[in-house]
């Protein structure tokens, strides 16, 4: 594909992947069912491609044609050039970043496969906020977590907002879903040799800094507000807390996650110790 | 004041404090000039009052009258009861939280006064995003930072969005503005006995975990994206970095701030050591 196709009709069926992007409920159902996700903006699109995702099509404002020239030439998919006004008619919002790509989802790996090569994993329970999911992935990537596991009721990391907030980290940190909750914390995660630490603001939990080193550590995070369920906490080996100043609400989940990732990053085996998984 | 006053005219001059709340540029100019700020939602309003701010007036949807009964009865200011539709006409948006209060600003303390009683302070340079400012205050409060100093070009912590994201932490963590930048880093902050540590992703900076203990530590943070200016970094005693995984963009500034606050919280004098400032 070397040329962009100019499209002038918002009802053109070739733009179907991009319709009603602001209708969160609709898109949440449609995208997994149709096997696609939307990458928004030059940087995120390039990262999705670099991570190996296949492009279904791309929708560009004309002024982005030059910046995306190499992507267009390499693309094995149609590229549609539209006016900003038409992009807004189709998607339902003003596409500030001027470039959208519809990408093909890939089958998620099984959690066992992810865990086989990992030493530090995040397990999220019922995190439904797309911004929080994206922020947690971004911090997980920056702070060296190896993988993410999701409870069955977590939201979709490939939803457009999650992808954007993560700055594409949802492409680089491998993730999987646990099928049975909380049973798989034991049957899958502990069975793979992981120590399970549940993050909670409870005053009787162990200070994060006092958590003993574990060669394989799974850090459990709950949603903003309710936090981890009692069932998930009971399924863990340890409950850990971030020491907080008196009288203050807990940190937001993104900040708490970043602190916890930082704290456990240094709690693995000493450098030079041979790990059976490396 | 024991009764709410029902107001039915969106042009009523008594509602002037609440007009055009979605016009960020207008409100940024108006609110400091008129000496007010807006607290939104029951929890934030209660925290502003608990922190000692004086209420100018309150605007409530009728269904909030009952929940706010004690606040209304204690208020030394008029309370206006309106329909949700009228609240939207006045403010320009649908007021989900159903309660807004216009609060009187207080004069900020001088930075010297704040520093006299502090051991761990945050210094922000040119942080202009209201969400980021709020998130940093929230983490600062939770993780025990004693005070915040702002460069002259930082945005307003009392802007509605900052207040909301901070969950009211902008009321509990004292803050001040430095007048001369970056000169006051030396003339005010270092002069008060603080070691200045500049947070940067630069690979040649010292790992945060290797920062020696300092009885008084000021942590410098820049804006998302550009980070600290060279001038600010040069004015610091040390440049520190959060160790990051290879090939990953830096953390967002809120996550980086939380990690840094956590890391330096433990780097003060040992418990039991008498500090000249305590």
From TrEMBL, chains A, B:
InterPro entries assigned: Alpha/beta_knot_MTases, MRM3-like_sub_bind, Ribosomal_eL30-like_sf, rRNA_Methyltransferase, SpoU_MeTrfase, SpoU_subst-bd, tRNA_m1G_MTases_N
Source species, domain of life: Bacteria
Alphabetized Gene3D superfamilies for the sequence: 3.30.1330.30, 3.40.1280.10
Keyword Transferase included in the entry's annotation: yes
Keywords, alphabetical: Methyltransferase, Transferase
Pfam families (alphabetical): MRM3-like_sub_bind (PF22435), SpoU_methylase (PF00588)
Positions of the RNA 2-O ribose methyltransferase substrate binding domain: 38-109
GO BP field: methylation
Molecular function in Gene Ontology: methyltransferase activity
Record flagged with keyword NADP: no
Family: Belongs to the class IV-like SAM-binding methyltransferase superfamily. RNA methyltransferase TrmH family.
PANTHER family: RRNA METHYLASE, RRNA METHYLTRANSFERASE 3
Name listed for the protein in its UniProt record: RNA methyltransferase
